[in-house]
TrEMBL record:
Coiled coil: none annotated. One of its GO terms (molecular function) is glycosyltransferase activity. Residues 24-57 are annotated as: Disordered. It is found in: Membrane. One of its GO terms (cellular component) is membrane. Keywords: Disulfide bond, Membrane, Transferase. Residues 101-342 form the Glycosyl transferase domain. PANTHER family: ACETYLGLUCOSAMINYLTRANSFERASE. Gene3D superfamilies: Spore Coat Polysaccharide Biosynthesis Protein SpsA, Chain A. It holds the Pfam family Glyco_transf_64. This is Glycosyl transferase family 64 domain-containing protein.
Length: 350
């Protein structure tokens, strides 16, 4: 397999050994939601959204005076305690398999869509796939777990409350360090998935590594806005976690009782949105590097259902607000502009 590789910036070599850490805190269940799909759809800003972008930034953001893409505050002493908690988690999971991966699919009352995705993922051998876990946020009696004809275990994990944060819960039964965070309506072609996983192992172990890059802009008043990357744009700063590899230690910190992730999770539950943005912020805050976009020979597939979070009113406005609020919570702007993208295959060069 060959790589078409652009310039990479701030490659992170990985955490050092650290001491062990403690337990996680429980969360208050949010109100139920009609759907958990988080596939992202661009939509033009409404007049309300435009006015929100033009509002003056908070005093904290004004004081930061953070230029576009700046990550200079990363690594300073203010977040040393957060990194220590994360590094402790990394040590706790070091005994898990790192040559296999788990697919964790978040779903909510869409059995037909889920079954299409499962059928596709389980129809072709994927050498390093260890297990598929269905994060079940519905009734307390999910379908029974089973083993596919190709020998892949499919396990249903019941979540007692309907939360987008459930996708990042560090399941104590996970047996791999690599978790492919997955919505129920999208997938990489199975023939490409092994390539994406091995790329994560070599280049993206502590980076959000996946199929859907996203971008941001900051206006002259300091407010951030979220949008899909424009055609021809030479950088991105986020990768959506509806189809992305995430190291289990990052999920552990995201789900911990530390102040930053606790405030962020509460905002995600309050708005029922933005857990993907939140994980990108946290990963970049901890590692001082950005995500990694990886594309197979085939484009990822999306069933593109008519109902879902991204189809609801105010979806993009919520994501604008998340960018700004998460910056306030963290205390600096952690996202890093990445100029590299990996594609499977080889172009012909004369």
């Amino acid at each position: 397999m060959a790589l078409i590789l652009s310039i990479f910036t701030n490659h992170f070599a990985g955490p050092l050994a650290a001491v062990r850490s403690g337990a996680l805190q429980a969360e208050t269940p949010p109100s139920p939601s009609p759907s958990l799909v988080t596939s992202d759809v661009a939509e033009p800003p409404s007049p309300e959204e435009q006015s929100q972008l033009e509002e003056p930034p908070s005093p904290l953001i004004s004081a930061l005076q953070v230029p576009l893409g700046y990550a200079g505050a990363c690594g300073e002493d203010a977040h040393a305690a957060a990194r220590k908690v994360w590094l402790e988690a990394d040590v706790r999971y070091a005994h898990l398999m790192d040559d296999k991966f788990t697919i964790a699919i978040l779903t909510y009352k869409r059995p037909d869509i889920l079954n299409v995705t499962l059928t596709k993922l389980l129809s072709t051998p994927i050498p390093s796939l260890h297990e598929v876990v269905i994060v079940w946020c519905e009734s307390p009696d999910p379908p029974p777990s089973y083993t596919s004809p190709l020998g892949v275990r499919v396990r249903y994990r019941y979540s007692s409350y309907d939360s987008l944060n459930a996708r990042f819960a560090p399941d104590p039964l996970y047996e791999t360090q690599a978790i492919l965070s997955h919505d129920d309506d999208v997938w990489y072609e199975p023939s490409d998935l092994e390539f994406v996983f091995q790329t994560w192992r070599q280049l993206g172990r502590y980076r959000i590594t996946g199929a859907l890059p996203r971008c941001f802009t900051r206006n002259d008043k300091g407010s951030l806005s979220y949008h899909p990357c424009k055609k021809g744009q030479d950088w991105y700063s986020m990768v959506l976690t509806n189809l992305a590899f995430v190291h289990l230690s990052l999920m552990d910190y995201y789900s911990s009782g530390e102040q930053i992730p606790t405030l962020i999770r509460a905002h995600v539950d309050e708005n029922f949105n933005c857990e993907d943005i939140a994980m990108n912020y946290i990963a970049s805050m901890l590692t001082c590097t950005g995500p990694l976009h990886v594309q197979g020979k085939e484009h990822f597939k999306n069933q593109d259902p008519k109902k879902g979070i991204s189809r609801g009113g105010g979806h993009v406005a919520k994501r604008h607000r998340c960018l700004n609020y998460f910056e306030e919570v963290i205390g600096f702007f952690p996202l890093v502009k990445q100029m590299g993208s990996i594609h499977r295959g080889m172009e012909w060069f004369n």
